[in-house]
Amino acid sequence: MADIPRHLRACLDMGKIAFLAILVSGGIVLQILACALYNNWWPMLSVIMYVLLPMPLLFFAGSDSTSLFNESDNSWINAAKFLTGASAVGSIAIPSILKHAGLIGWGALAFDLSSYFVFIVAILSYICIGDDSDNYYSYI
C-alpha cells in the first residue's frame, strides 16, 4: 500500500473504523430487539457477560496482547485466558438456560445468539484489521 496516496489511505482507514462501528451497533440493536420485540427483558442478562468478557484481559494481560495467542508460562496470562473463555461460554449459556427455563422464546434466543455472533465478528475483524504493521488503531 505504499503507492496509494496519503489522503486515500486515510479514507480507507476511516472506512475500516466505520465498518467496526456498524458491526458493534448492529450487535447492540439485535440485543435490544431480542428484548423489545418479545416484551421480555430477560435476554439483557447476557449484556453482563459482554461487559465482563474483556475484563480479565484488561486486568491480567495489560497491553501485552501478543502473549494471548502464544503458549505462556505466566500464570496471570493463563488465568486471563481461562476467565475470558468462561465469560464467552457464559454469553452463549445464559440465553440457552433462559430458553430452557421457559423465560424467553425461540425468537428472543435467535436474536440474542445472533447478537453474540455479530460481536464476535466485530472482535475478529478488529484483530485482523489491527495487525502489527499498522499502528492506526492504537488509539481505539
UniProtKB/TrEMBL annotation:
<feature type="transmembrane region" description="Helical">
    <location>
        <begin position="104"/>
        <end position="129"/>
    </location>
</feature>
<keyword id="KW-0812">Transmembrane</keyword>
<keyword id="KW-0472">Membrane</keyword>
<comment type="similarity">
    <text>Belongs to the OB-RGRP/VPS55 family.</text>
</comment>
<feature type="transmembrane region" description="Helical">
    <location>
        <begin position="17"/>
        <end position="39"/>
    </location>
</feature>
<dbReference type="Pfam" id="PF04133">
    <property type="entry name" value="Vps55"/>
</dbReference>
<feature type="transmembrane region" description="Helical">
    <location>
        <begin position="75"/>
        <end position="98"/>
    </location>
</feature>
<dbReference type="GO" id="GO:0016020">
    <property type="term" value="C:membrane"/>
</dbReference>
<protein>
    <recommendedName>
        <fullName>Vacuolar protein sorting-associated protein 55 homolog</fullName>
    </recommendedName>
</protein>
<keyword id="KW-1133">Transmembrane helix</keyword>
<feature type="transmembrane region" description="Helical">
    <location>
        <begin position="45"/>
        <end position="63"/>
    </location>
</feature>
<dbReference type="InterPro" id="IPR007262">
    <property type="entry name" value="Vps55/LEPROT"/>
</dbReference>
<dbReference type="GO" id="GO:0032511">
    <property type="term" value="P:late endosome to vacuole transport via multivesicular body sorting pathway"/>
</dbReference>
<dbReference type="GO" id="GO:0005768">
    <property type="term" value="C:endosome"/>
</dbReference>
